[in-house]
Structures are given as structure tokens and as C-alpha cells.
């Protein structure tokens, strides 16, 4: 509980900092008055319609990625598992790319996230159908195949794009960001993320039993096949919604659970909520960093998380290799 309280306090502090940092040059007192009292009008518009939805969305996306990463690592019993492994994130990215390429995103403001969500749901359904009642290996192989197919189709769309401006827009979107997002994106993602979080919370005790192995979990009365479907569905809702509104933000779901496992233990029931708070804190910190590191350039959130996360990922692989040797 102390770890969760500290993480919650960290998220609150970073959220407050996110509201105060920006190119408008508003002081803390002026920002607070604009947020609470609504004046002056220009400052209130900046705080309430630009910074506040951006801050909330960063926390939601980070929490979704962190929780889904912890759940998948518990399901697959592998600390190197991450949300992109089951193919939902690449499928959501493919849907967004198609919306951008076909002009739907320009014609209708919410066409991009809605198309991304539709493709994420289709990928999750295909994963359940293909993997069926198979074991963990079947689920991993099906997810890898779906990821490869979605990645190839995304590359094909870029390859055949006749409009260089559309291709550039696609590339920038795929780098991941929560800048220029509105309350519409928050309200679109929030219900799906809440539903996904509820499903993962209901699966936590089953995942605890699964740490003993599938046979031991079955002997304890845990329906392993149904548990697998529940975790995939919850992860799909969380990751699909996150990618739909923020683009591809990598390594959060991989790194955060691994860092917190030493503090809260390997139990998924404890690790999932801790990873949700940790993911929110990491993404809020990263979003603040992109504004401070390059205030005059549009540094993308996914670029920063990849630069920080990739070396950490390599270190994890090296550590796992040392344990196996």
C-alpha cells in the first residue's frame, strides 16, 4: 500500500507540473486561477481545453500500457512480454494509417481513433479465434503473426501512398504523442480503458494462481482458457484505446512492470495496479520532458520512450540470458 500511495502522489505531482508547463508562459498562480475560477479567458482556454485534456490523456495512456504489460507478463509468465506482442497495437496503428491515407481523418475529426479502435477489436477477435483453447505458445505465435501482418500492411500503405504529405502525416502520427488532443479523445478512450481495467482487475486472482503453472492453476479451479480470453480482451481494450488516441508509444508496458516487480513482488494482483500508476507517472514525465527538451520542436512522445526504453530492454535481455546460462 505504501508503494501505491507513493506512486499515486507521484502521478498527482507530475500531473500538476504538466498543467503548469507550456509555451504560453503562465505563472503558477495565474494557471491555478484560470483552471479553478475560469479567468482570464485566454488563460482559462489554455488550461482547460489544451493542457488539462493532454495531462489526463497522458496519464490514461500510460496507465493503460502499464497495466496491460503487467497482465500479459503474468499471463505468459515472461517478464519480457509487452502489449504489442498480441498484435492489437500494430492493428490499431494500421487502422489509423488507413484513416489518414484515405482522407477519412480529414473529413471527420474522430475517424482516426474510431478506425483504429475497430481494427484493434478485429485483431483481438482474430487472436481469440486463431489461438482458441490452445496454450501460451499458440497465443504468442498467433500474436506475432498478427503483428507481422499489420506491420506489413502498414508498410504497404506507406509504400503505395501517392501523397508525400499524407505519408509524412502517417509517419509523425506513428511516433506517438498526446499533443493537440481534445476532450473528445479523452471521452472516446475513457470508457474502453475503464472496461479493460475492470476485466484485468477481475482476472488478477486467476493470474496469481497461474504463476504456479497452468496445471496447478487448473487444479485450483481456475478456468485457464477463459482467463486467457479475459486477459486478451482487457488488454485489447486498453491498448487499442491508447494507440487510437496517442499513436504508438512503446516500451512503457515492458519497462514499468519490470521496474515495479522488485518493489511490489511478482503477484499480478499487486503488480497490475502498481504498473498502472507507474505507467501514468512515466508517460506524464515523458510528456513534460518533450516540452522541456525541445520546446521549439515537435519532439514526439514515442521517440523519447523508445530512446530510453530500448537500452533498458537490451539490459533485460542480457539479464535473462545470464539467468539461463
Fold and architecture overview:
With 325 residues, this protein is mostly helical. It has one domain (2-324): ABC transporter involved in vitamin B12 uptake, BtuC. Helices cover 80% and strands 0% of the residues. The protein has helices at residues 2-20, 28-36, 41-76, 88-102, 104-107, 111-131, 136-160, 164-174, 183-210, 214-219, 224-246, 252-264, 268-293, 301-324. α2 crosses α3, α6 (111-131) packs antiparallel against α11 (224-246) and α12 packs across α13. The longest helix has 36 residues, at 41-76. The model has no long low-confidence stretch (mean pLDDT 85).
Secondary structure category: mainly alpha
**Beta-strand residue fraction:** under 5%
Radius of gyration: 20 Å
The top-level CATH class is: Mainly Alpha
CATH topology: ABC transporter involved in vitamin B12 uptake, BtuC
Q: What is the H-and-E element order?
A: HHHHHHHHHHHHHH
Quote the distance from N terminus to C terminus: 36 Å
Number of helices: 14
Q: What is the mean pLDDT? A: 85
- Rough outline: globular
Pick out the low-confidence regions.
Answer: none
Give the biggest beta sheet. Answer: none
Helix content: over 70%
Counting DSSP E segments of at least 2 residues, the number of strands comes to 0
- Our count of domains comes out at 1
Looking at this structure, what is the CATH superfamily?
A: ABC transporter involved in vitamin B12 uptake, BtuC
Second-tier CATH architecture: Orthogonal Bundle
